[in-house]
Amino acid sequence: EISTTCSSSSASSSSSPRIFLDAHFVDGIATFLIDDTVVLKSDNAFLRNYVDITNVVKPSSKIRIIFESPVDVSNARRDAYPFHVTQGGNGFFDNGASIAPNFIRKDASSWGWDWGIGLVPSGVWGEVRVVEVPVARLRQCGALVYVASNEQYAVQVTCMADVASQTSSLRLEARLVISSEQHIAASSNVDDSGVAQLTLSVPSKQVKLWWPNGLGDQPLYDVHIDLLDQSDAVDQSQVSVGFRNVQLVEPATPNDEPGRLMQFVVNGVDVFAK
């Protein structure tokens, strides 16, 4: 069990209308309680959980995380499964106890794999935070680069926001910084679910190509992201992107031999990789 006290004096203040529990990479079977009220049950270490705890948390609330035994839970799930499942992990611990790692989403190496000791620990590898949201905050932002044409790239920016009030008029703005004097910008409204998506159109001649190690430089370009309520910035974020064209091609074999070749082509150059 892990416990702490929420020391926020504004937990019940009208200046912070919504409060969230942000739990990232909780490795194990965990139950979160705030003053003995269950607010979250987590059994997947790779999912990030956001829970609205506005009506539960108070100043000086006690927050507890209670972990169950991963071995006991996974074995129980295996025993209840209607089909036979082959042993996973290293098969057995030193004491001869069987394990069933396939039934729990947690760090695989903690089971021992085929070497080392299998301790199967539980705990918080990431972060657990209580987050106050007066208006809105950016929960997560990401950017993907696509080759739109021979002359243009498309940078698709997607953000998720926690919104305190649906009456807020929120907008997302993003700027790709090419140089101190040259920016490319776009904006989009935040929808009712707190998601905003926009696309930056980038002429290929205005950016330098990203290359694999040994073939050239790896220039990255910053994308500055602002979350706006009317004209006021309420949160900011930043991501970096590179521009490259990667293809997986299957040319015919020499002399029409059976099968096909397979290779990567990066920015028009054949690259050996395995």
From TrEMBL:
Glycoside hydrolase family 2 immunoglobulin-like beta-sandwich domain residues: 153-244
The protein's name: beta-mannosidase
GO biological process, one term: glycoprotein catabolic process
Record keywords: Glycosidase, Hydrolase
Enzymatic reactions: Hydrolysis of terminal, non-reducing beta-D-mannose residues in beta-D-mannosides
Every Beta-mannosidase-like galactose-binding domain range: 11-125
PANTHER family linked to this entry: BETA-MANNOSIDASE
Highest classification ranks of the organism: Eukaryota, Viridiplantae, Chlorophyta, Pseudoscourfieldiophyceae, Pseudoscourfieldiales
Chain segments annotated as transmembrane: none
Record flagged with keyword Hydrolase: yes
Organism: Pycnococcus provasolii
EC number(s) reported in the record: 3.2.1.25
GO MF entries: beta-mannosidase activity
Pfam families referenced in this protein's UniProt entry, alphabetically: Glyco_hydro_2, Glyco_hydro_2_N2
